[in-house]
Amino acid sequence: MPTAISYDEVEVGQELPAGVFPVRRATLVQYAGASGDFNPIHWNERFAKAVGLPDVIAHGMFTMAEAIRVVTDWLGDPGAVVEYGVRFTKPVVVPDDETGATIEVTAKIAAKLDDRRARVDLTAVSAGQKVLGMSRAVVQLA
Amino acid sequence: MALDPAFIGRSYPPTPAYEVGREKIREFAEAVGDANPAFTDPAAAKALGHPDVIAPPTFPFVITYRAAAQVVMDPELALDFARVVHGDQKFAYTRPVRAGDRLTVSVTIDNIKSLAGNDILTVRGEVHEESGEHVVTSVMTLVSRAPEGE
Fold it and tell me: For residue B53, what is the nearest residue in chain A, using CA coordinates?
């Protein structure tokens, strides 16, 4: 089986190991290059402020990519993610300094489903604010 | 002016095939800081039952985002892209994207609605391998914010 996590050993309410992910300006430049999303709000402070943002913000898709790492690290096999969806509620603001921002992700088993699947609910917080809403994954367990 | 709901159901022709390479997957995995060996080591991926390295779960957006440009740039729809933000994103996977895939995206406008002056556009991208195998469905919601003073 692809993942070592057994459906029978998983309980509703169970917490997955949490993750803390740093994000700096350089991280966003690297992500822009890899993803092809070069919107200047993700790397140009002058532009970001001109359109009313407090500062440069992370790509929503970058935040979405970090959040699911809590699930894929737990699963071992990233291919065991069957569904994944998020709502982008607040931007992750990334200041131009040594520390940048952090995205703190927690996750718990919200429901056990048919076919040895489970729903995992995710919470992602940056600077004390929830940055993702309705963040859920469905995973195929062994 | 609000978007015309008559565009609900409009489909666009499949995009030319995007060939997924191992090094592109590696580059993407490094950019999101994810060291899972299934993304970079074919032997590790095979041990999990995959024929080659697989891509991180959000990688398909690289391809579906390009495909959605057909909608965003559709002159008949007349979306004001300067006001567009990404509202939400969902993926439903038949299997993970993997190196060697040649992927095409068929885009459809699933819904258009107006809420408090904002236009909310739901764009679905069906991603298939060239062989016809379904790989992943991407559903994104784009929100076009109302111009100030309207």
Answer: A79
